[in-house]
Amino acid sequence: MARYLAGRAAGVVLILFLVCLFTFVIFFTLSPDPAVMICGKTCTPERIDQIRDVLGLDEPFLAQFFGFLAGIFAGRDYGAGANLVHCAAPCLGYSFQTNQSVWDMVVERLPVSATVAVGAAVLWLFLGIVAGLLSAVKEGTWWDRAAMGLALGGSSVPNYVLALALQYVLVVQLQVLPFPQAVAFSDGPALWFQSYLMPWLVLATGYACLYARLTRANVIDTLAENFMRTARSKGLSPALTMRRHALRPALTPIATIFGMDFAALLGGALITETVFGLNGVGKMAADSIAKNDQPVIMAVTLLAAFFVVIGNVVVDLVYTRLDPRVRITAR
Amino acid sequence: MTVAAHSQQVAGAPATSGRRVAGALLHDRAAVLSSAFLALIVLMAICAPLISAITGHGPNDFDTAAVNTDLGGVPHGSLGGIGAEHPLGVEPQNGRDILARIAYGARVSLLIALAATALTTLLGVVLGMLAGFYQGWADQVICRVMDFLMAFPALIFMIAILSSLPQGNRSVLLVVVISVFGWPYLARVVRGQTMTLANREFVEAARASGASTGALVFKEILPNLRSSLIVMTTLAVPGYVGTEAGLSFLGVGVAPPTPSWGQMIASSVGWYAVDPMYFAIPGTFLFLTVLSLTVLGDRLRAAFDSGEAA
Amino acid sequence: MSELLVVEDLTVTFPTTRGPVDVVKDVSFTVGRDETVGIVGESGSGKSMTSLAIMGLLPRGATTRGSIRLDGTEVLGASARELRRLRGDRMSMIFQDPLSSLNPYYTVGLQIEELYRAHRGGSRAAAREVVTGALRQVGLPDPERRARHYPHQFSGGQRQRIMIAMALVCSPSLLIADEPTTALDVTVQAQILRLLADLRGQSGMGMVFITHDLAVISSIATRVLVMRRGEQVEYGTAEQVFAEPRHDYTRMLLDSIPRIDDPLDEVSA
């Protein structure tokens, strides 16, 4: 077990290192000189040199890269003498645009993305699994056809189209919701709930449709298993047969898919957050990309990769608890 | 003796199964409707210049007469300027014809999606078969690369790359970037199937009878991957149509003034309250195209599956 | 003496796209207490459908005619609740593939325990005692510890022993064994056959033994029913059927059994 975890941890570190390196190489070679961008329009060559010096942009590639890595684990200093700025341990640098600490920006925005992700996940898990179960049990009936037709349609709507359509119907036409705006929980739970309702719905729709189809397929496959025939031949009640013998095998694979989807969302729902103006990590990513704010782009890429990789490990560990056939063996 | 008979049967299967699958699809109303809609879109894309010639509006021709400049450029008429002059209405402010832009946008969307699918399939099949057929270190390397690419926050990274690359030929860049992050999903399946096929008796029989590696791959393994490849590629196209539209929506796709559906929807964001048709029309085209492709892929899979069960 | 199981003119019909098809046609046989009846036939002969009809486990859409009486109780047309009370308690079934017939997600102990408690109730602790006893009875070593293991942790023969322990935990009066040894190694087959015969002898229950293998039937059954394409082609005591088969099909089946006294070249031909 300890050996397995050590192996997985090494894998996580390696992948994150590669993501860092890859992203760094791309920006080092491709993007325009950040010093020129930071400096702005009224700029002198001396000022550009100064900025380069402070940010260490005049150093060779490897020095810059390892400077960045060292910053994450040990913190780093920018500039020298009177201009010296110390950036404490999880240091992701400073935004070229706002001079804010990137780590602070991430910490500030992560709760918004988490709220979006958790709310949507609750919705889609509930809707998707219930609809899929009903369809599987009533396979071939009008309910099954209608639900699966809807699910196929729902998973084909791009979420920004759905976002616009929902806003038009709920806000402009029916006027049941206010115009979307960022609201903190402290501003009042009702208002907060209203402001997150549309993002949750938009994000949950596609996943709910996908999960409904997955659940249906898995349950139908499980119901045809030989062990279901055994369960029926034992004279168990239909409720127990369904709950114990069908649901667990049918839903276990969905748990792993859910883990991966949820982990990916924690790294920011880029389109949904942008459309609804929610100040989460996703919107931060979109903004930083639009303004070529490299330290922030690095941070969001790394953060998203971090969640995906950690999510992968968590899913594998949870799976060994869910399926007794899977046992941990060190590779 | 039985081995030879088996391989003959497998080799003979695709031809008849192709006809059977086509027959099954023809009897499926949803599949027929989807195909008809897709044919319409393809026709529209091909005939885009013809459509412009007939209506007299190119995709980038301004028509200030069609919009009300006093009201900030809202189109005249109730439904976003829909009328005899502009069958699908006009854009607010500049009055560009939406039908022409949809038709030209279809070219961009379909070309990018199809090209990305082709490139993804090529990469996925070649690398997946390499990994599955040779196993050993080739498999190790390819699997690590796939793990790495799948752990990558693809959307953020695609946007980041595309935004920092020179404007240049955006369509080609889009195809390359989408494919680089897309192939592992296909390769994973191809690898698994190749592995099982490589150990099946008819491939072993061919190998024992001295067939070259090339003959093994092209005559024994590839034909058996055909049905799953058809299904996977059909289901990949709607994904890429959506990805292209999404990237264009976020402003890193095809560069204006080249029209694209995603870009049209993006520019309608500020107008949805006063001119809902502006997002509804490209949104509907995008939705129906993705839906049709998904339905078709789904039915293809069902048709192939029922063939295997029989 | 009254028979344990009486099957009269059983017909099972399936709807297909080309109209209804009879998968079992007018089959009649009886099983006495303390007796084994063998049903023989190739795959698709309707032998498994006959057993599923007795258990009330036919797939959805299947319709039945005729009569199946267990100890005087009519099974065809019984309510779902009545059938549930019979299944697992008065009649049990074991299947061909013990691995896929056990749920991989639960310990074998729990899977036996839930059957016992569904019919007899009682505390889990009491049920666990019974489970241990049942596993010991089928010859599983260290039953207390092994009850906490999952199906994949057993060998094929052990799994079939577990299925038998499960089927017999409520001491049913009828056991249906549907090709119970087909998926097993030859040496294990003999062990399982002997176990089934021993347990049946000890408990005095009736057994329906379904197989495609006449050689197996000859060692275990007192009466034999031969089926082909849903129809019953031969029915009689094992001695009758083996000594003077009345039907060509039975004769063909008998001829296909390899015999020790056969010259070697004939076997390989």
From TrEMBL, chain A:
<keyword id="KW-0812">Transmembrane</keyword>
<feature type="transmembrane region" description="Helical">
    <location>
        <begin position="146"/>
        <end position="170"/>
    </location>
</feature>
<dbReference type="InterPro" id="IPR000515">
    <property type="entry name" value="MetI-like"/>
</dbReference>
<dbReference type="GO" id="GO:0005886">
    <property type="term" value="C:plasma membrane"/>
</dbReference>
<feature type="transmembrane region" description="Helical">
    <location>
        <begin position="296"/>
        <end position="319"/>
    </location>
</feature>
<protein>
    <submittedName>
        <fullName>ABC transporter permease</fullName>
    </submittedName>
</protein>
<keyword id="KW-1133">Transmembrane helix</keyword>
<keyword id="KW-1003">Cell membrane</keyword>
<dbReference type="GO" id="GO:0055085">
    <property type="term" value="P:transmembrane transport"/>
</dbReference>
<feature type="transmembrane region" description="Helical">
    <location>
        <begin position="250"/>
        <end position="276"/>
    </location>
</feature>
<feature type="transmembrane region" description="Helical">
    <location>
        <begin position="112"/>
        <end position="134"/>
    </location>
</feature>
<dbReference type="Pfam" id="PF00528">
    <property type="entry name" value="BPD_transp_1"/>
</dbReference>
<comment type="similarity">
    <text>Belongs to the binding-protein-dependent transport system permease family.</text>
</comment>
<dbReference type="InterPro" id="IPR045621">
    <property type="entry name" value="BPD_transp_1_N"/>
</dbReference>
<keyword id="KW-0813">Transport</keyword>
UniProtKB/TrEMBL annotation, chain B:
<feature type="transmembrane region" description="Helical">
    <location>
        <begin position="110"/>
        <end position="133"/>
    </location>
</feature>
<dbReference type="InterPro" id="IPR025966">
    <property type="entry name" value="OppC_N"/>
</dbReference>
<keyword id="KW-1133">Transmembrane helix</keyword>
<keyword id="KW-1003">Cell membrane</keyword>
<dbReference type="InterPro" id="IPR050366">
    <property type="entry name" value="BP-dependent_transpt_permease"/>
</dbReference>
<dbReference type="InterPro" id="IPR000515">
    <property type="entry name" value="MetI-like"/>
</dbReference>
<keyword id="KW-0813">Transport</keyword>
<dbReference type="InterPro" id="IPR035906">
    <property type="entry name" value="MetI-like_sf"/>
</dbReference>
<keyword id="KW-0812">Transmembrane</keyword>
<dbReference type="Pfam" id="PF12911">
    <property type="entry name" value="OppC_N"/>
</dbReference>
<keyword id="KW-0472">Membrane</keyword>
<feature type="transmembrane region" description="Helical">
    <location>
        <begin position="171"/>
        <end position="190"/>
    </location>
</feature>
<feature type="transmembrane region" description="Helical">
    <location>
        <begin position="229"/>
        <end position="256"/>
    </location>
</feature>
<feature type="transmembrane region" description="Helical">
    <location>
        <begin position="276"/>
        <end position="296"/>
    </location>
</feature>
<dbReference type="GO" id="GO:0055085">
    <property type="term" value="P:transmembrane transport"/>
</dbReference>
TrEMBL record, chain C:
<dbReference type="InterPro" id="IPR003593">
    <property type="entry name" value="AAA+_ATPase"/>
</dbReference>
<dbReference type="InterPro" id="IPR013563">
    <property type="entry name" value="Oligopep_ABC_C"/>
</dbReference>
<keyword id="KW-0067">ATP-binding</keyword>
<dbReference type="GO" id="GO:0005886">
    <property type="term" value="C:plasma membrane"/>
</dbReference>
<dbReference type="GO" id="GO:0005524">
    <property type="term" value="F:ATP binding"/>
</dbReference>
<dbReference type="InterPro" id="IPR003439">
    <property type="entry name" value="ABC_transporter-like_ATP-bd"/>
</dbReference>
<dbReference type="GO" id="GO:0016887">
    <property type="term" value="F:ATP hydrolysis activity"/>
</dbReference>
<protein>
    <submittedName>
        <fullName>ABC transporter ATP-binding protein</fullName>
    </submittedName>
</protein>
<dbReference type="GO" id="GO:0015833">
    <property type="term" value="P:peptide transport"/>
</dbReference>
<feature type="domain" description="ABC transporter">
    <location>
        <begin position="5"/>
        <end position="254"/>
    </location>
</feature>
<dbReference type="InterPro" id="IPR017871">
    <property type="entry name" value="ABC_transporter-like_CS"/>
</dbReference>
<keyword id="KW-1003">Cell membrane</keyword>
<keyword id="KW-0547">Nucleotide-binding</keyword>
<dbReference type="InterPro" id="IPR027417">
    <property type="entry name" value="P-loop_NTPase"/>
</dbReference>
<dbReference type="InterPro" id="IPR050388">
    <property type="entry name" value="ABC_Ni/Peptide_Import"/>
</dbReference>
